[in-house]
Specification:
Layout lengths: L15 H6 L1 H5 L6 E4 L7 H8 L4 E4 L16 E3 L4 E3 L5 E5 L2 E3 L2 H6 L3 H4 L9 E3 L4 H11 L2 H8 L2 H11 L11 H27 L4 E2 L3 E2 L5
Parallel strand pairs: 1-2
Antiparallel strand pairs: 3-4, 4-5, 5-6, 6-7, 8-9
Length: 220
């Protein structure tokens, strides 16, 4: 049974609040045991709730740094237990709060400097350490396994649903207020659910009826 729900937030609101706004609509369908999200939602209350639940599963693709001709963060080994970061050349930097800074002299003399920093760089290399770095490492490790990749592929139908949700008016909101656009997004989600039901009924070749003489309606 299709269960597409939708909500709208102000453009300047963090994306994670979108997941929390949907919690009431999602709760109608039961307890969430598996949650497929983007990294923008890992700080949401819904994410923490599912992750803390016994048997709860969260599936998310790890953050992917953009490659610009130099070593990226994933080329470095971040050892959270030891509190250090090892660069591809084998040098170490101590993690301090949210970053690890390598020694300027070592970076300047490193034979791999051209592959690590732009030629115009005047400072040493610094690696940012995300507050949820351990979680990101878990996501990254899962992506390297056949089982983890298979679970991520299950998100593809969700992406298709999102494209149908956005299709009626592209990337732009139809109305000015949040309340009106919120109602409009829920209307589109309801229509998408009806269309999905219609396709499944057509595919099954069975005329499904409910008590009281109500039948599924073909929406064209």
């Amino acid at each position: 049974m299709p269960r597409e729900v939708a909500a709208v937030l102000p453009a300047n609101a963090p994306e994670m609040h979108g997941a929390d706004k949907l919690r009431c609509q999602i709760a109608v369908f039961g307890v969430v045991t598996s949650l497929f999200v983007d990294c923008a939602f890992v700080s949401s209350e819904l994410f923490a709730e599912v992750r803390a639940r016994a048997g709860g599963e969260v599936v998310c693709r790890a953050l992917r740094p953009a490659r610009r001709g130099v070593y990226v963060k994933t080329d470095f080994t971040i050892d959270l237990a030891a509190g250090v970061v090892r660069c591809p050349a084998g040098r170490l930097a101590v993690i301090q709060s949210t970053h690890a800074r390598f020694a300027t002299a070592e970076c300047a003399a490193c034979p791999s400097r051209g592959r690590c920093q732009p030629a115009t760089a005047k400072e040493c290399r610094t690696i940012a350490v995300h507050p949820d770095e351990a979680l990101q490492q878990g996501f990254r490790a899962a992506q390297k396994t056949p089982e983890g990749r298979a679970r991520l592929r299950e998100r593809v139908p969700v992406e298709h649903g999102l494209s149908h949700q956005r299709a009626p008016h592209s990337r732009f909101a139809r109305y000015r207020s949040v309340a009106k656009n919120d109602f409009d997004s829920q209307r589109i989600a309801a229509m998408n659910n009806l269309l999905t039901i219609d396709r499944r009924v057509r595919r099954s070749g069975v005329e499904a009826q409910r008590p009281g003489g109500l039948a599924y309606v073909n929406v064209n």
